[in-house]
Write a structure and sequence with these properties.
alpha/beta, 7-stranded mixed sheet, 5 helices, 10 strands
């Protein structure tokens, strides 16, 4: 199921408060399997607890293996380095898609600390105030792949390796430009669950913000399977998604 169909099939639910339990790292054997591919381009549904935690676990595991420098790329602006940045302030404007979630904030602040300690190189895909084109971002990631082990995270609409001809998502695609070193992995859920987003619940309607539900899949938690539907090399099925609300919610 592609990401647009996933949004269309999701149900908006009331969520005045979301108190997610901290996610645990996947099994070490799975982390090693993922890292054995080399450079990773992970595609996510924004607004979950589990995917930012997966990235953190991959980074920490990669740092245990001496070798190439570790480079982590996130779908954010350089402004996200600052914990007080407006990026981390939610205003229910309809622009919130989960990238400024509490879980993403925790990941980025951890990565900033690791970069300060000289452990990793941190890359922000959106640069400064203006977002580069998808091709420009992809070419930046391609260049980074020549300098170290890259773990890149973006929305599943950006990380596809192959885009169907005529797809309206083509202009969003960074994946086709990153070069052959990357393995493209879509992060899914076996058990269903929830995520936070501001998206229209019907065609030609204003975005509505809140927790959305996603259905279980016919898959085994922890399974990494070849991807035949979303344009990636593989789909990794985590056990369950848990919604992570935005930082500094002003109307919740």
């Amino acid at each position: 199921m592609n990401i647009l169909k996933l949004f269309a099939a999701s149900t908006l639910v009331t969520a005045l408060q979301v108190h997610a339990q901290p996610a645990a790292c996947p099994d070490e054997a799975l982390l090693e399997q993922l890292l054995s591919f080399g450079d990773l381009f992970l595609g996510e549904i924004h607004g979950t607890v589990e995917t930012p935690k997966l990235v953190q676990c991959l980074v920490e595991r990669a740092l245990q293996n001496p070798g190439e420098p570790v480079i982590v790329s996130v779908e954010q602006s350089e402004l996200a380095r600052d914990a007080g940045s407006p990026i981390w302030k939610h205003d229910d404007s309809g622009r919130e898609d989960g990238r400024s979630s509490e879980a993403m904030f925790a990941l980025v602040m951890d990565l900033v600390d690791k970069e300060r300690e000289g452990l990793i190189k941190l890359h922000f895909q959106h640069g400064g105030l203006s977002r580069p084109s998808a091709e420009a971002i992809g070419l930046e990631l391609k260049d980074l792949s020549e300098r170290g082990l890259v773990i890149a995270l973006a929305g599943g609409a950006h990380s596809m390796k192959n885009v169907p001809a005529g797809s309206p998502l083509a202009v969003l695609q960074e994946g086709p430009h990153v070069g052959p070193n990357f393995t493209h992995i879509n992060i899914g859920t076996a058990g269903g669950g929830s995520f936070w987003a501001c998206v229209p619940i019907a065609e030609n309607t204003e975005p509505q913000c809140g927790v959305r539900q996603t259905a279980p899949r016919s898959a085994t938690a922890g399974a990494l399977v070849p991807d035949a539907t979303t344009g990636h090399d593989y789909v990794l099925y985590l056990e369950r998604f848990t919604a992570s609300p935005p930082m500094n919610r002003t109307s919740q």
